[in-house]
Structures are given as structure tokens and as C-alpha cells.
Amino acid sequence: MNRLPAALFIIDIVKEHIAVKEAKRLNIPTFAMVDTNANPNEVTYPIPANDDAATSIDIILTAVCNAIAEGLKERDQEAHTDKQEVFEEENNKSKYELVETEEDSETSKKPKRRRTTKK
């Protein structure tokens, strides 16, 4: 990894006690499923759940993954909207303005003829 993660998600803090300590030392926020056999004060955001049951893990991880996907989608939409607004503002700040004069409107009504020379 080139940089530290923004957050750490841990399933069983008793088994992954080294990861919890390292995250604390590096000031990385931790989200963790905390069972009755663990201390919830060791993590930043404890999620009370049974970390031994596969169904419980699946439900929690599905909810977390859906929330992350939704947040990323909203962030991308906001970034796209911001870029589009900046692009429109830049295009509206043109140095030149198109103005139709009376001469232009009159000449556009008349058919244009070219002179040609015969050989």
C-alpha cells in the first residue's frame, strides 16, 4: 500500500487484536463487529453483533458494502455535476458576443450572387 487506509473494518477484534492495536497507534478509525466476549471501547465505531455466525457477518457486511457503494455513487454524481457547472460557467464567459445588426439581417434575406468570368 502506498498510503494508510481511511478506515479499517474488523470482524472479530479478539482474533485481530494486532490490527486493532496498529490502527490505534496510526490513528486509523476502526469499525468493528463486537461480540459479548470483547471490549467495545477498543474500537472507534463498535457494531454490536455476533461475530461468530456467518449469517450475522453476511447481513452486516452487505449493509456496509451497500452504504459504501451508495456514498461513492453520490460522490461521483456530485463531482460530475460540479465539473459540468464549471464547464458551463467557462463557456458563458466568452470574450466575444454574437450580435446581429440590421445590415446582417437585411443581407441574409437577399440572395447572394457571385461574379464569374467567362473564358
What's the structural blueprint in terms of helices and strands?
Blueprint: E1 8-10, H1 17-25, E2 30-34, E3 45-48, H2 54-92, H3 102-109
Parallel strand pairs: 1-2, 2-3
Series of H and E elements:
EHEEHH
Shape: elongated
State the CATH architecture.
3-Layer(aba) Sandwich
Q: Rg, please?
A: 32 Å
Helix content: 40-55%
Q: Which terms summarize this structure?
A:
119 residues; mainly alpha; Rossmann fold; 10% strand; elongated
Give a brief description.
With 119 residues, this protein is mainly alpha-helical. 47% of the residues lie in helices and 10% in strands.
Word description of this protein:
The chain is elongated. It is mostly helical and 119 residues long. Strands 1-2-3 form a 3-stranded parallel beta sheet, with helices on one face. Helix 1 (17-25) links the parallel strand 1 (8-10) and strand 2 (30-34). 47% of the residues lie in helices and 10% in strands. The chain is built from 3 helices and 3 strands.
